[in-house]
Specification:
Blueprint lengths: L3 E2 L4 H12 L5 E7 L5 E12 L5 E9 L1 H19 L1
Antiparallel strand pairs: 1-2, 2-3, 3-4
Length: about 80
């Protein structure tokens, strides 16, 4: 199954993980292609965790925010149409 992040969004995702390594708690929203070809939007939050033995882990939470994005886009489109007419 192929799943991939859009190339334009990859730098933002990598920057989010770089920030997590630096100790910040970044959040990025990226486009993601599902295995069936449909486009999805994912919100990725990452945090650096240093275990007692000194090893570093990146903990991440991936949430599908496709419906939220679609609703926001529809609202913006409706607002533009209402302003026109």
């Amino acid at each position: 199954l192929e799943r991939r992040v859009d190339g334009e969004d990859l730098p933002g995702l990598l920057a989010a993980f770089d920030s997590a390594l630096a100790g910040a708690e970044p959040v990025a929203t990226i486009r993601f292609h599902r295995a069936d070809g449909r486009l999805a939007w994912l919100r990725v939050a990452a945090r650096r965790h240093v275990a007692p033995d000194g090893t570093t882990e990146i903990l991440s939470l991936w949430a599908d925010v496709t419906r939220e994005k679609e609703l926001a886009d529809n609202l913006a489109r409706s607002t533009r149409l209402a302003q026109l007419g």
